[in-house]
Design goal:
By secondary structure, this protein is an alpha/beta fold. The protein is built from 16 helices and 12 strands. It starts with 22 loop residues before the first strand and ends in a 10-residue tail after the last strand. The protein binds flavin mononucleotide.
Length: 429
Amino acid sequence: MSFVVPVRTAPLRLTELPWQHPTMLAPLEGVSHPTFRAMIAELGGVGIVCTEFVRIGTAALAPRSIVDQVVHAPGVPLSVQVMGTHIENMADAARLVAEAGADVVDINLGCPAPRVVRKGAGSAMLKDPALLHDVLCAMRSQVPGIFSAKIRAGFDDRSSVVDIARTVEAAGVDFIIVHPRRRVDFYEGVADWRTIAILREHLRIPVVGNGDCWYAADVARMRAETGCHGVMLGRPALRNPWIFQQAQALAEGRQPFRPDGAALHGWLEAVCQRYTHDMPEHRRGIIGKVKELLTWLGRTVRDGGTFRREVLRLATIDEILAYSDTHVAPLGADALDLDACPEEPLERSGSANLVVEDGAGGRWLGGGRADSLESSAGSPPASLAVRDTGASTEASTEASTEASTDATTEASTGEVVTPAPRVHARGCA
Ligand SMILES: Cc1cc2nc3c(=O)[nH]c(=O)nc-3n(C[C@H](O)[C@H](O)[C@H](O)COP(=O)(O)O)c2cc1C
């Protein structure tokens, strides 16, 4: 077997993330292609950008198609994600992308899509620690540089998240990214950042938090509440492409950029131009890609959803840009939800400090330090169980659901979880 000869000679033992900024653009299937990665990198403030997953099957590898994924955005490091269960193929794929110049090789252990889970890949690997260990060790042996793993909080319960993360760490992974929903949650509810805090306490490798960090100020808040070393942003960057540079401005005590309608319209124009120019092979599909972004950008317009609804009905790029020019370009910043630290946010951000209401008048604050979460010895702690609805939402792709914007999450117990009052991060009024 090709992977048994170790290539790596000395462990890196990362204690911090080695990039200029502690932020990552998440892997986003169908969206985080080279053009989008480059455009986000150009806006500044992002530490590293990630490719969507490259599916590694059980048949002989097609090296060219794997290596072709290694496309850097100028000036920003690149993480290339692979997903699969075949030990040798995963090791070979990891070697190929590392040799082709990926700054980080990442393994997908979180994809919830039924088509992926049925094959035992993505989040299904969280249920199989022995396979997980073998795949990770095989990949580790072939990656001389940085190797990371992106996990969810579990498959259908979160009580073994520490064991999973320890398996990951023991295999020599350099840092871990955690999106603290379980597979059965898909994108339901609000990300419970306490899981990130737990991993931060129990691991020696750096931990990157991910999930529902909708505003730039949430980046600092997630780090403060969980102690995580870095923050990964996915949908929030589709919604607000300036979020990384805003987070950097806040971290440096500067006034963050406040996008108005002209800026948002300008971004949409740039997207249309660049996508059309860079992806001639997708000529017909460009409108679909632009509309996918518009579903997120449209959420920032404070008009009850009218712009989003109307613009998604249009048939051509020209019609979309004309409509945006009339309806978005004239808007002031107050008409948009793009501030770094909004007074009236439209999205529900995650928290490690959840206010839990028991439906009988009881209220308490969950979160803070995470010790108590493990004290239930294997079973989900009561304070987390309130969000375990057990409902599995079928989704055809990882990308197919949007964040719930409901004000509260009804759990099967009748209990309700709402985020704690927003904490204003440094730099916000
Ligand atoms: C459109 C879309 C595509 C995604 N594709 C991937 C993927 O290829 N690999 C992966 O690990 N996660 C993928 N995810 C999950 C995100 O990387 C991220 O973990 C999740 O959206 C939660 O973070 P957020 O709240 O910042 O969006 C995808 C999510 C979306 C919405």
